Amino acid sequence: TGSPMSGRRVGFCLSDKKRKRMNLHAFHRCSLTDPSLGEFFLSQIDLARPLVPQGPFDVIVHKLSDVIVEAEHDSRSQQLLANFQSYVAAHPGTVLLDPLPAMTQLLDRFASYRIMTKLHNSLRDWRICSPPYLEIHSVSDPSSIQQAVMAQGLSFPIICKTRVAHGSLSHEMSLIFSEGSLADIHPPCVLQSFVNHGAVLHKVFVVGDQHFCVERPSLKNFPSGPCDRETIFFNSHQVSKPESSSDLTAVSRIVGVTSEAVAALVKELRVQLGMALFGVDVIINIQTHTLTVIDINIFPGYEGVPQFFSALLSHIESVLDKQTFAGPQAVGPSATSTALSTSRTVDTRSLSDAARDNRLPLRFCSCHPGFQMKHNSCFYFIVEEAEEMVTYSCVEVMQIGNSQNSRNSLHTVIIIAQNIY
Length: 421
Ligand SMILES: Nc1ncnc2c1ncn2[C@@H]1O[C@H](COP(=O)(O)OP(=O)(O)OP(=O)(O)O)[C@@H](O)[C@H]1O
Ligand SMILES: O=P(O)(O)O[C@H]1[C@H](O)[C@@H](O)[C@H](OP(=O)(O)O)[C@@H](OP(=O)(O)O)[C@H]1O
Hints:
InterPro entries: ATP-grasp, Inositol_tetrakis-P_1-kinase, InsP(3)kin_ATP-grasp, ITPK1_N
Oligomer: single chain
Mean pLDDT: 78
Cofactor: Mg(2+)
GO molecular function: ATP binding; inositol-1,3,4-trisphosphate 5-kinase activity; inositol-1,3,4-trisphosphate 6-kinase activity; inositol-3,4,5,6-tetrakisphosphate 1-kinase activity; isomerase activity; magnesium ion binding
CATH architecture of the largest domain: 2-Layer Sandwich
Radius of gyration: 25 Å
CATH topology of the largest domain: D-amino Acid Aminotransferase, Chain A, domain 1
Number of helices: 12
Strand content: 15-25%
Shape: globular
Subunit structure: Monomer.
Strand order of the largest sheet: 5-14-13-10-11
Structural class: alpha+beta
Pfam families: Ins134_P3_kin, Ins134_P3_kin_N
Bound molecules: adenosine-5'-triphosphate, (1S,3S,4S)-1,3,4-triphospho-MYO-inositol
């Protein structure tokens, strides 16, 4: 009998660059050698090929930032994204790490900075905040930008970042030291008060309910207030990668972060974002010692976190355990309960075959793609084989998938079980 803990099918849908950086081979080795974890089958998903034959998947781990950003203007990327979305909608039992809408919002700094600003209220007790900022939607006359900067309470120096938060151009930034230099910006962009923080960046890498903190170089302190210095143009990867060394990154004083505050921040963001794989960039204001959030990243590199692979695998395992117990959550709008006429007619033969072949692990229950599970139902499936017969305990069988499907798929039996305990 197959154990529900075994054989997780994990698909990775990543850009070539991300795949190489992640080193999926090492990941695979980790999945094989960590005895505390169940069995994982890892595969790479090729977005350019039909997805159904590449599946099924219990989980898809993805970073589709390139495709999502390119889909704004490129029809091939639109098609790839649409294919992926329809696969996901048709397979509600497949867990997506992370949900597309949740991660898409972080590709837009206008959206992510609004989220960061909300933290100020929700985490008031921890004195966590993000710097004042201003959205610049389009080219406007310098005096109206200057007025908006004043009205929003921004202080010089000001850091200017592109609106789009992904791709090589998104790391091109500038430091602006006076009102006159606001002419150097290229909308759409955000302007944000620069906060002196002793040139230390605290990267908080989140994997489900675990998080890891890593220190990185960062921009050095600058005198507060406007001055006649020329705008400094820089690439964020020159200043905040582990190996970064630049005139802009001299460490002056290291100020630590309290682990309780970081834990509270991570907990709050997990709820706000509805994501499991993300990074938060934090600096400590050297004057006020306030923990200040400056960036939230989708599925970051986890550089300096050797535990990343095992943390990811145990997160996947815990997500799937919860799902097996509670049943898949949301399904697409096309999935209507009318598709499930209440029926107690059971194709016992196909079910019995499936159970005997171990294609239906005991106590496994899943949902046929495209059907809707009853909200808040518990799903539980107990099969007892007596000779050729199969009996059910405490389950109301709504529909058994047709025999063609039941050949290869665990997702063919639909059982709505309620009040089973
Ligand atoms: N408000 C700020 N005050 C002080 N320094 C800042 C501020 N915002 C950004 N920085 C500095 O600029 C760097 C880049 O900023 P940010 O993290 O927003 O860029 P990014 O390109 O989105 O980064 P990532 O590579 O993590 O995606 C930070 O690591 C930090 O050194
Ligand atoms: O782990 P940190 O230091 O946060 O670095 C990440 C950057 O912050 C991201 O900007 C990278 O993604 P982009 O490809 O969007 O630049 C991201 O690239 P990746 O998706 O290839 O890992 C990382 O380099």
